[in-house]
Design a protein that fits this description.
Number of strands: 21
Strand order of the largest sheet: 14-18-13-17-15-16
Strand content: 15-25%
Radius of gyration: 23 Å
Length: 517
């Protein structure tokens, strides 16, 4: 058993280079090094642009490179397609010096014009990734292997965004597959065309995706020949297969199954200080949740201890806002301000004009413990007269419903894409963000978030995000229920796995992991 149970302390990097993992897939393919990874979150789109689903990016990150990348050290941006970069004193001009030895799967040669096209495509498609890149005014090739980014205003997290999963590079040759002006999104959703260490080999939808290592990758070659991502929706089946040794590593084990896995000498259970927050969001554009008193009544009705200690078996902790424990820019003292207080919750409903409560639908997806958490919340709300029905839909359906005001009350989660509070705050709260499913619009919040991006002094940014934290806590447009630990059980024969808590959910380091008998 291997743990990093310093629950919400400092950001820590845990690398266990000595872990070894033997895969049933490896045994079945003599002479090939194969790792089998099981997930309850079925991938559904392999296009690196126009979507923001972590289960997709777990694969995309290994098929597509960026100008720079994240890795084992939480506070380091690593060169990737760019060898180095320079920034002007005013923070408005960034110049990247590019590699000259990179080719995409179809033989397209990487250069500055490819970078220009890739960002044109991202802005042309739209979607959540654009919200991360609103500071970009122009991407301008200077020469074949030099590209310049001109920003509208300084953006403190700019280099982190480029290193994140948001800004992977797509070649212009993808346009050979464009249909009716779709930027080739339909074709690229189930094909690969990257410059990364892996490429798509096969996809049995609903069952498995196989990625194979490229023989001519420009960088250090992967140490595995293939990794197979299997979709296993039923947690009990995933646990059984782990114990049987037919899968090597798993994402989706329920907290109540951890102790059984820890007791098995053939399985290591890694537990680290994850930064994923799970929350309820309200459609604040419509009654009854346009009234902050109603939203706070919900916050005071929830039994946080029953969720964190019961459902999550101690692998969760109450949190008060989008900036998680372990990241700067938060007010720790707010974390326990909302506690279960039924008399106060009922009084707030009465003051808002709902003395007898109302009916509502709570919508979520079958991700980990979300359905069970939803049942606890359903019972909690019944205690204050809110008659709640729970609707569990597929992940794809869930995230398609939010933008169309089809979710009254949603149970969702968010993980950082880079180690900066902007990663959580801007996407969830900025008025025009496509991920602002609460539909709350505030000029004051927008002003703070814009300032948080444009100010580059760390101490000033700390003050800005603490002000933001206080404001959204009072508005209660979301109720933050828990921040969960990062749990990954695996067989006792994996090498090369490392853990970066700031990007742990989308980034599993398959490119440096290997299987050893």
């Amino acid at each position: 058993m291997i743990k990093g149970r310093c629950f919400w302390g400092l950001l820590v990097l845990v690398a266990f280079v000595g872990l070894v993992l033997v895969s049933s897939g490896a045994l079945a393919q003599e002479g090939r090094n194969v790792l089998v990874y099981a997930t309850s979150k079925e991938p559904n789109n392999l296009d690196p642009q126009g979507q923001m689903v972590n289960s997709n990016f777990r694969l995309i990150y290994h098929m597509y490179d960026g100008l720079c990348a994240l890795g084992p050290d939480v506070d380091v941006v690593y060169p990737q397609l760019a060898t180095s970069w320079d920034v002007s004193e005013d923070g408005l001009t960034w110049v990247f010096h590019l590699r000259d030895d990179v080719y995409f799967e179809d033989g397209t040669h990487f250069d500055s014009s490819v970078v220009e096209f890739s960002f044109d495509r991202m802005f042309g498609i739209g979607g959540g990734q654009v919200s991360y890149n609103t500071s970009i005014k122009e991407v301008r090739p200077i020469d074949t292997y030099t590209v310049q980014f001109i920003l509208k205003e300084p953006f403190a997290a700019f280099i982190w965004v480029l290193a994140s999963m948001m800004d992977r590079i797509v070649p212009p040759s993808v346009m050979e597959h464009e249909v009716d002006g779709d930027w080739a999104t339909a074709w690229l959703s189930d094909h690969s065309l990257g410059s990364g260490p892996f490429q798509l080999k096969s996809w049995e939808k609903g069952e498995r995706i196989v990625l194979e290592a490229k023989e001519d990758y420009w960088g250090d070659p992967p140490k595995i020949d293939e990794f197979i991502v299997r979709t296993i929706l039923e947690p009990s089946t995933m646990k059984m297969e782990l114990l049987a040794g037919t899968i090597d590593m798993a994402d989706g084990i329920l907290p109540e199954d951890i102790s059984d896995l820890e007791a098995n000498p053939d399985i290591n259970v890694f537990i680290g200080p994850g930064m994923r927050v799970n929350f309820l969001y309200f459609d604040t554009a419509k009654p009854p949740f346009d009234d902050a008193r109603v939203r706070k009544a919900v916050a005071y009705a929830i039994d946080y201890e029953a969720i964190n200690e019961g459902v999550l078996q101690g692998t969760g902790a109450q949190v008060s806002g989008p900036v998680p424990y372990g990241m700067w820019g938060r007010i720790d003292e707010l974390d326990t301000m909302y506690q279960r207080n039924l008399p106060l919750a009922r009084q707030l409903l009465k003051d808002a004009g709902y003395p007898d409560g109302f009916e509502v639908t709570l919508t979520t997806a079958p991700r980990g413990s979300w359905p069970v958490m939803a049942q606890v919340i359903q019972s909690n709300l019944t205690d204050i007269g809110i008659k709640t029905s729970v609707q569990v839909v597929s992940v794809a359906t869930f995230y398609s419903m939010g933008p169309g005001h089809q979710v009254q009350l949603g149970l969702d989660g968010w993980s950082p894409d880079y180690p900066d509070p902007d990663s959580h705050a801007y996407l969830l709260y900025y008025s025009t963000s496509t991920e602002n499913f609460a539909f709350y619009k505030s000029d004051e919040i927008d002003r703070l978030l814009d300032k948080g991006r444009s100010v580059t002094n760390q101490a000033e940014r700390e003050v800005i995000y603490r002000q933001f934290h206080q404001m959204v806590h009072e508005l209660c447009t979301q109720v933050y229920v828990t921040q969960t630990q990062f749990v990954r059980p695996m067989q006792t024969w994996v090498k090369g796995f490392y853990f970066n808590p700031a990007v742990a959910t989308p980034l599993t380091p398959f490119h440096v992991m290997w299987v050893e008998k």
